[in-house]
Specification:
This protein is an alpha+beta fold and 218 residues long. Helix content is 30%, strand content 21%.
Length: 218
């Protein structure tokens, strides 16, 4: 069964380019982004890892750790990091998990449970390993996105989605289409108009079920 929003992210212990990692321990009290790749030394993935490296200060500001997973070995990851850093022109200090066994890919339903790919596999063999998970400090999955191999991920959108997840966590609010921090939010129907106004200030009521308020974090 595919992982769903609010499922606990499966825990695992794996080798990485930064040594052995227990995933839940590594997350600690932070948010986490797990982003997976079908193979090292591939062009689209190199640009994506470079984008993550450049965004390191943004993730740090958001109390968020990032970790990659690829179906090659930790030793191969360490070699690949040199290419990523040369392309991005910044250090790539986040860990990359060793998933040569496909254990993580299977735990996160990125491959059929019976899949086993021998040495010599190509990126096409593990093409489904192209998913992003945003995970909360409670270790629950908040969001997932899956991409085909031909489409580079938009990490600006991933940061935007992370901002929306963090803004709405534990609050009776949601974010409208194309929302970015500082824009108005939608107040949930669990609050009546009076309760909503008391909690969030003046409401902009567009429809009985669509009520906007100022971003409480603005």
């Amino acid at each position: 069964m595919a992982l769903r929003i609010n499922d606990v992210a499966p825990n695992f212990t794996a080798d990485s380019s930064s040594g052995e990692i227990n995933f839940h321990d590594w997350i600690g009290d932070s948010y986490a982004i797990l982003f997976s790749h079908p193979k090292d030394f591939t062009p689209v993935c190199t640009t994506e890892f470079g984008a993550v490296a450049r965004l390191a200060p943004e993730f740090e500001k958001r109390n968020t750790k990032v970790i990659g997973v690829s179906v090659d070995s930790a030793e191969e990851h360490k070699k690949w990091v040199r290419d990523i850093e040369a392309f991005a022109e910044v250090p790539a200090n986040f860990p990359i998990l060793d998933d040569t066994s496909l254990e993580i890919a299977k735990l996160y339903n990125m491959l059929p449970a019976e899949a086993y790919l021998p040495d010599g596999r190509t990126p096409a063999d593990s093409a489904t390993v192209r998913t992003v998970f945003i995970i909360g400090p409670d270790k629950k999955i908040r969001l997932s996105m899956t991409y085909p191999m031909s489409v580079g991920r938009n990490f600006a959108e991933i940061v935007r989605a992370l901002d929306a997840v963090r803004a709405t966590d534990g609050e009776p609010i949601a974010t409208p289409a194309d929302w970015v921090p500082g824009q108005d939010v939608i107040v949930g129907l669990s609050l009546n108009d009076e309760e909503a106004a008391q909690k969030y200030g003046e409401l902009n009521i567009k429809l009985p079920y669509l009520r906007f308020a100022k971003d409480p974090q603005a």
